[in-house]
Amino acid sequence: MNETQTDQSQSLLNGTNWLERPVPSVHVPEENKSKPTFSEPTVECPECHALVTRTAMSFNTYVCPQCDEHLAMKARDRLHWFFDQVDEELGLEFTPKDPLGFVDSKPYPKRMEEAQTKTGETEALISMQGMIEGVPMVAVAFNFEFMGGSMGTVVGDRFVQAAERALSLRQPLICFAASGGARMQEGMLSLMQMARTAAAIERLRQASVPYIVVLTNPVYGGVTASLAMLGDVHLAEPKAMIGFAGKRVIEQTVREKLDEPFQRAEYLLEHGVIDQIVHRHALRDTIYRIVSKLMNLP
Ligand SMILES: [Zn+2]
């Protein structure tokens, strides 16, 4: 051992080495303490208010890593996540029109244009054909960001086309529902989609082609009253709100106070309206298993 090493060992023993020097404190301004800064966009969980980067949220399929809240998922993201492989997007030839020349606070075409700019989609329903684990399926998903996922003629057209494709190829049809109901700007024409979609589903039923509905938060109105409640199997995501009319409208009609959770998926499961609540991370496997059983796949 040379002289320098002996000095270092001595200073360690005496407790005067650099490891024990006081660390200079770092001043963090008060306003920065409660606001962590991220270099990439973040998403705030509506339940626990945790700030999570969009990339982390997307990797976790928009389920909050802190509290397990299921956040809204865009229809296109949903279908790309659902399929292992997308073969074709259906229904792009159906584009919205303004059959009634409807104007409320702004003209319907203007409202439609704003929704298209906001979402990057042409309508509220996206329809794709693809495969999971080698099993071909047709799936449709509602985009709630697009005018509340409301059902107008194009949504009806795309749904019926997807059902007909599923029927002709004898592939199961999966529907991820998230909608406020029928689209008031298309009046009676949007209500007619309830009957059209119901008829298309009935044709699937007669041919024994499975139709599985996944109810995501929220599903209301004419969509609940038609295609979302006509599945062979009804799955729901945790805490999804599902109903026909909203709580306030029902309370005003029946003149009674209603319990808060009465339109939640958990309450509906207890009362036999839906078949199963499935965590988003288990949804793909669950649907694959149900389809395999219903279609007698090996
Ligand atoms: Zn959370």
From TrEMBL:
Keyword hit for Zinc: yes
Biased composition, Polar residues: where in the chain?
Answer: 1-17
Location relative to the cell: Cytoplasm
**GO cellular component labels:** acetate CoA-transferase complex
User: Known SUPFAM superfamilies for this protein?
Assistant: ClpP/crotonase
Q: Give the main localization category.
A: cytoplasm
The protein's name: Acetyl-coenzyme A carboxylase carboxyl transferase subunit beta
Q: Which organism is it from?
A: Acinetobacter populi
